[in-house]
Each structure stands twice: as C-alpha cells, then as structure tokens.
Design goal:
246 residues, alpha/beta, Rossmann fold, four-stranded parallel beta sheet, two-stranded antiparallel sheet, 6 strands, 37% helix, disordered N terminus
C-alpha cells in the first residue's frame, strides 16, 4: 500500500523512524551511509541541450529529430533530466518498489535542476495515473510530482486525470502498438485543467505514447498546453530492458 494513501505527515514520520532504525543506502549502488554517493552522482548521465524541440532527445541538427519530423508526438513537448541508464535506472527501480519519499525528494531536486535547464512553465502538475489492476509497488510518478510541486510551489492535482481503462504493460511494444495500447485510457476533469498550462510528470519516458495519451485527455478537457516532464529518458531501442533486482 502506497504511503500516499496516508496523510503526508504520517508517511514522513514513518520514514524518519525507519531512518533511525536502518542506515541510509545509496539509491544507485546501495552503498551504506549515503542517499546518493559521489560515484553514482558522477556516473549519472545528464540530458543536456541541445535537444529535439518536441520529444526532447539529444539533437543538434535542426528543430526536430527525424522521428518527430516523420511521426510527431501530439503534445507540446517532452523534457527529461537524465538518460535512463546506470545509477539513475537503479534509483528509479528502488523508488518504484520501495516507495521512499525521501528518495523522491532527492530525485525532485534533480528534476528542479532540469526544470530550470529547460525553462519549463506550468500552472499545475499532474502525475501519470497508475492502473491499480497491475500496480506492483508505489506510484512513483505521484511521489515525484508531489515532491517536485513542493519545490516549485505549484499545485499538484492527481484527481485531475484518471485512468479509465486498464492497459497491458508497454514494455517491449513497438511505437505504433504503444499508442494503440493507451489510446483512450485516460480521462481529465475540466474543473481542474480548463485554461491551464499542465505538466504531466512521470519517472521515465520511453516513446512518449503514455504522455501523449494523457495529453489527449487534458486537451479535450480544455488545457491550453500540455508538456511531459520525466526524470529519465530511454535513448535508443525504444523499449525497456528488464530491471534488475536490487
């Protein structure tokens, strides 16, 4: 059960007690005594400009990469802070299956740097909703969005977007299949998003299909702009490889 189903002060108090009982371990390599050790910090690959103006992958030869010229995403754009590899990949795995809010706060600090780097603007943040039918751990998107919202002093409204159809995992699916898999899977509430600039927060972007499906619902509900913002981005391959146990 996610800590986000309890009042935040209870969740944080629980974590403080756990921190007293058990020593901190690096989110990347598991080294005791660190929440994020210098070796993992040095090994993490920042995603820096120049990037494709739409999908946000590294790109310096024009506004849009060839993939977006041929088959553009249907949202204002996507930006990510790190390449999904090495210690960032390990840290996101720990967040997904262990749900530590302190780790989400650390990651939100990294996302704040990315937010400034890409000059993001928004009226509110919304996490990608999780399907309860296949949720194996915590909604890491909601944890990141909550911590990021606190750092930006922006509202975060998870109730503004909900998943109305359970979908199979996107892992290993081709781009066109990913789009069909999540098409019509989300519904947005105009009371929260009409006339607003919305940023949808997720942990990782692979192809952008899920963010695109969220954007479709938000545009339909009256959002004036929709951007996707993730901690990490898969570069090349277009699909996740299985996560290791940590």
């Amino acid at each position: 059960m996610s800590l986000f189903r309890f009042p935040q002060w209870i969740a944080r108090l629980t974590e403080e007690v756990l921190d007293l009982l058990f020593p901190s371990r690096c989110a990347g390599c598991g080294r005791p005594g660190w929440s994020w050790c210098p070796s993992c910090a040095a090994a993490a690959s920042l995603l820096l400009p120049p990037v494709c103006s739409l999908c946000g992958i590294p790109w310096s030869r024009g506004e849009r990469c060839p993939r977006c010229e041929a088959d553009p995403l249907h949202l204002d754009g996507v930006r990510s802070c790190y390449i999904y590899s090495g210690p960032i990949r390990q840290a996101l795995h720990r967040l997904k299956f262990h749900g530590r809010y302190r780790l989400a706060q650390t990651m939100a600090m990294w996302m704040l740097e990315g937010w400034a780097r890409f000059t993001m603007e928004a009226d509110l943040l919304i996490p990608v909703p999780t399907s309860r039918a296949r949720q194996r751990g915590y909604n890491q998107a909601a944890m990141l969005a909550q911590a990021l919202a606190e750092g930006l002093t922006l509202p975060m409204h998870p109730q503004a977007l909900r998943r109305v159809r359970a979908t199979p995992s996107q892992v290993g699916l081709a781009q066109n299949v990913r789009r069909e898999n999540v098409r019509g899977a989300f519904l947005a509430d105009p009371r929260w998003v009409q006339g607003k600039r919305v940023v949808v927060v997720d942990d990782v972007c692979t192809s952008g299909a899920t963010l695109e499906a969220c954007a479709a619902a938000l545009y339909q509900a009256g959002a004036t702009s929709v951007w996707g913002f993730t901690l990490a981005r898969v570069i090349g391959g277009g699909s996740f490889s299985p996560l290791p146990k940590v």
